[in-house]
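Model: Ready when you are.
Researcher: Fold this.
Model:
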Amino acid sequence: MAYNIPSKFFTMDFSAEKKEYALKDNDAYIEMVKSLFKPDDVIMVMCRSGHRSAASVNKLTEAGFTKVYNIIDGFEGDVDKDEKSPTVGLRAINGWKNSKIPMTYALDPTLVYQQKK
């Protein structure tokens, strides 16, 4: 029941130092959001850990949206750094998924961003 509108896209440029793929801005992000929402609609923005969504909220606010909120800990939350924990190294601290709030991996294709071929 939530739209997937990426503010950034993954690239195929892998950073061995950061152990992650580089991201690039979605230049059409604001236009995509404007096509679905009015400036005074309530919009809650989420990413994996809350960092990209915070930047997305800032972009939407600058574009004139007035009721935009960041889900602070994101979907997966923070990495467990406790060496004694059975979930060390996993995103098991806070986050939507770890809070037992209802969620599903069953995606509605009409709500998911799909790159045009």
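Researcher: Now this one.
Model:
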Amino acid sequence: MLSWIAGTFELIGLWKVGNKSKLGFVFNGVCCVLWITHVSMTWESPGLLVVVVPAFFINIRNYIKWTREAKIKKEN
């Protein structure tokens, strides 16, 4: 069940980011946590961690970049 929830959050997050909504980063962050939890509980598809753990940190980096860029645009 957790994998279905994680997958849903991932799709919503991607959709939101595509619509230039910062809320998408929240959905993607929660998605990563859910995937990590799922793998930790079931140990199904441990290779998924190779993608999900870095994706979590990339998501944070991208959020910071978007926030900085928005602040610069606002100042100009």
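Researcher: Key takeaway?
Model: Helices lie at 2-18, 23-42, 48-75.
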